Structure formats: C-alpha cells, structure tokens
Amino acid sequence: MENKIIDVCGLSCPEPVIRVRKTLKNYDGEFKVISDQEVANENILRLSRKMGYECEIQKNDNKYELLIKKG
Amino acid sequence: MNNKKRMIFTGMIVGILSVLLVIMGNPANMGICVACFIRDIAGSLGFHRASIVQYIRPEIIGFVLGSFIISKISGEFKTVSGSSPLLRFVISCFVMIGALVFLGCPLRMVLRIAGGDLNAIVGLFGFAAGIFYGTKFLRKGFTLGRSYKQKNIGGYILPLISVGLLALIIIKPSFIFISEKGPGSMFAPIMISLGAGLIVGVLSQKSRLCMVGGFRDLYLMRDFQLIIGFISILVTVLILNLILGNFNLSFVNQPAAHADGLWNFLGMFLTGFGSLLLGGCPLRQTILAGQGNLDSVITFLGLIMGSAIAHNFLMVGSTANGHIAVVIGIISLSLIACFNIEK
Known about the structure:
heterodimer, A: alpha+beta, Translation Initiation Factor IF3, 4-stranded mixed beta sheet, 2 helices, 4 strands, globular, B: mainly alpha, two-stranded antiparallel ribbon, 14 helices
C-alpha cells in the first residue's frame, strides 16, 4: 500500500492534531506528516505516543517530516 | 525541563508576577489582563475616550518583545500570514467585546477566581461552554485556512511598534492620554511592568501557555498538557492571596466586576468561542504576534479595535448595548464557523 502523506503546514492550533488523529483512527499503516511548526510537531508527537504509535521527526530545510507508525 | 514541568513553572511564575504587579501598583485582581491592558493602550492612544482606562501598559509591550527575542534566539521566529486575516480581525473584535462585558480576559478570569470573585466562576462556566461549543465546529472540519511564509520584514512591525509605545510611555508626550483616576491610573513602575511582561512573554512562548487550549485539548483529546498551566496559575495566586489576605469570597464588592450572572456567562462564552476559532486566547495570540505570525498581529489589532468599539458604544460591563453586542457576536461567529467548514 502506498504511504499516506498529510500536509499540516500553516494550519492553526489544533487543526494539525485533529487531522492526524482522524488518520490514526481510520488508517492502520505507516504515514508521513509534513509540518512547518515546532508546536505542531510537539502536539503530534504527544498524541501519537498517547495512542500507542511511534513518531520520528526529521528536519528537511524549513519543514519537518514526521513518520508515524504502530509502536 | 520536560513540557509538563515547564508548563507548571510558567504558571507559577505568571501567578507570582500577577500578585507582585498588584502589590507594586496594578489594579486589584488585575496583575495581568491582556484584554484590559490592550484596552488601556487603545485609550491612551485616544482610540476611545473612557478617561479611567487609559495607560500604555508595558506588560503588553513585554509580551510582544519577550516572545520576539526568545523566538529569534531559538530560531522559531517566522513571518507567516494568509489565514483569513479579515475574519480573524472580526472574530477578535468580538473576543474583546465579550471579555469587556465580563470585565477581563481568560487570564484575568483565573486571577479573579483566585481572589475569591464568584462572578468569575460563572464566567469560567461560560468560557468552558463557549470552547465546547466551538469544538463542535472543529470536529466537523472548521478551518480559517493555511498561513504561508512571507518576507521577514512584516514580522518586525509589531515589535517595532512596541518599542515605539515603550518610548511614548517613558517620554509621556502631551498627546497620549493617561488616566488620573480609576484602573488606568493604577500601575506598577514601568521597568517592573516591562520586566514582568518580558518574563511572561519568554516563558509563554516556550511553554505554549494558552487559557483556551487547556479546555480545548481536554475536550478534544483528553490531553492535560495545557490545562496544567491554567491550574498552576490558579493555585499559585490562590495561595498567595490567602497568605496576603487578599482573598474575598463573594459575588459582591469585587474589584472591576459586576454580578450579572447571565452576562458574565455569555460574555465569556463569546470570548471562549471566538478564541477557539482563532486558535488561542488573547495572551497566546499576543505571543504568536511577537514571533512573526501576522494573522495574530491582525488579531491583536482586532482586539484594539474591539476595545475601542466596546468603550465608544458603551458596551463595557453589563449594559444594554453590551448585551446586544454579545448576542450579535455569538450569532456572527457561529455563521463564520459554519461557512468555514471544510469537508
């Protein structure tokens, strides 16, 4: 299955987390989140851990890639 | 320091500074009030002529500059804009009107509760209800759209204006207004207020302290991270007020408050709902404005405009005009929320 990508760049709080949570609830595979704000990363990281997922954050130029998968 | 500890620490420092600022001269239960202080600045610049609430509050200048400085150091400063600026302006006008009907921003609501003001507990219920109402729209897909990176120069405007405001309050030229009586005439020494503002600005930027976010995340995600800040401020100020003998548990004879329960509730309902749509309380918006978010700068300007409208049109406290404005506000914001749902 092709990896899903969610772009949360430029979204206000708490929209990035809501979008990721929706995906976590409806999708079982690995997926990638593209973000441009540290605050969104922190919130997504917290949410993923709480829901039993692993979240790896990598910086790419001015954006971040968050890889989320089952823990 | 982990996020939770940082949030508790920030709440404690905000609480301690709020009490200290009252001891040093700020009005009672108003050590820090983002809405009141932005309103005072609007009055000092002559945008409204309510003579008892006119003063350029250095605390607000400190919030902006504290956030600006720390975000420049940490690399988080980034100029962005484009997320429905005009809608944000309108929403923030109503956020301010709701706050001025209640007589305080969400942060002052906490300080009032910690001072024993039972009217603020009514306000808290309204605030929580407004946020809960707003989360219904968020769950359905409400969004004000994305913001995009802009040239950095835009992000420097509000910090530069803040420096200009600081110069004005130090020089005190004859064209600015400073209250001779009432809350506007009560203030801590400039450098104390500025220092406290800078500390709160830095800590709030780092911890993401937000009064609205606490309830929102609790409803939406059962996440306690942000509500910890809210509780930490409340507990700190409550303890200090009890020690200092500043705790007066009652509905009546509270400083800068009224006992009209319905409008305390609905005023804060409007403020909570509006702040939720904006993505943060007035304090958080001010912090974001300092770190280059131009949509939050527009929100800040909306708060100034809202305060001028509220005072010029006699909407402050429980007044007939204020009641009408709050009802119009709740309806308008509901419509804005409905029309911005993305499927």
